[in-house]
Amino acid sequence: MHIQSLSIENFRNLQPTRLHFSPQLNIIYGNNAAGKTSILESLYILGHGRSFRTSRHNKLVNHDHDSFTLFAELTAHGSGHKLGIQRFRNNDVHMRLNQEPLSKLSDLVSLAPVQVLAPEHYELLTKGSSGRRKMLDWGVFHVEHSFLKRWQDCQRLILQRNKLLKTSKSYRELAVWDSQLVPLSIKVNQYREDYCQLLQPFFNSIIKSFLPDVDVSLHFYQGWQGHDLEQLLIEQYPKDAKHGYTHSTIQKADLKIMSGKRLAADYLSRGQQKLVTTALKLAQLSLAQERGQQYPVFLLDDIGAELDQEHQQMLLDFLAQQPSSQQIFITCVHLDPLKSLINRYNNVRLFHVEHGAVTVIDTASEKNVQ
Ligand SMILES: Nc1ncnc2c1ncn2[C@@H]1O[C@H](COP(=O)(O)OP(=O)(O)OP(=O)(O)O)[C@@H](O)[C@H]1O
Ligand SMILES: [Mg+2]
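Structure tokens predicted for DNA replication and repair protein RecF (370 residues):
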């Protein structure tokens, strides 16, 4: 899919604007605190309904207003769509797709796949499993849409089971729930495991080019490794009932990233860990291009940050080889390192951001610079 235009109103520090994008490469540059990441954040919301920087929607609304509004024209599944999102400080949200109210966030997510790599994600390996699970599940969903319904059903059953645990007197009261929960949980994790297997060759080839001398591998951990889930739920009943909470669920699954026999998070340098995260995101993009129903829009925040020159160049080379219908948005403080990438694309749009005001820059003046 690609985003043709976006109107932004009362979002963070951005002045009201309407931006027309290139279907290929878009570069947003400007000084610190200009509003570059805020633009990427608004694009991300089109595909996720939420930010990648915060779960608190009221932080996104400009200080002087009560709601923000985004209105996008995009092409998805081969046809044009108009998508509007208004989010209020009190968390209310109004979404419209092609003039019709849109009530389910999942409809938004399946319409508009948007993927992001931002400095926030460089902690992916060291932080808890939930970030890795979210990343994994986003990928699974865009390759296999039926995953979402099963995942939601599973979540609902876990909530009901937890509620029942608080009042139950014996495991027998839970058996009927578990007869539904167990096969569904196994199915959800099977999707995840299959996705990991599909992802592995893409990841292996990218990480080999980034870190040729380091052994890094991906492993899916299902959350009840080495056990039969049905049996485990019976055995863990006393513990589950004591805490009013199911200990072994799909919410314990993880994508384990190993370097040899050690966890990559405990062994690799910070820079190496950033490259592993970058390789994971790029592998997901490549896999979605090959197997997904449409190309995700790819957002890259602060390309200059945290990678050395050699590895930044590797990332730029990877981006320069993307298919022509892949839409990319990159933010940076300095344009110079991106000149070679700009010269390799036919259709580039440059946006300069200054104190929340966005100006389109004539690419001819920025192209063909040595
Ligand atoms: N709700 C809000 N209302 C008004 N301004 C806000 C709001 N939230 C954040 N800001 C301000 O918006 C500015 C732009 O932030 P943003 O993160 O987009 O900058 P940036 O260009 O990505 O900077 P950097 O290069 O440092 O990453 C910051 O000064 C921030 O304090
Ligand atoms: Mg930023």
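The mean pLDDT is 93.
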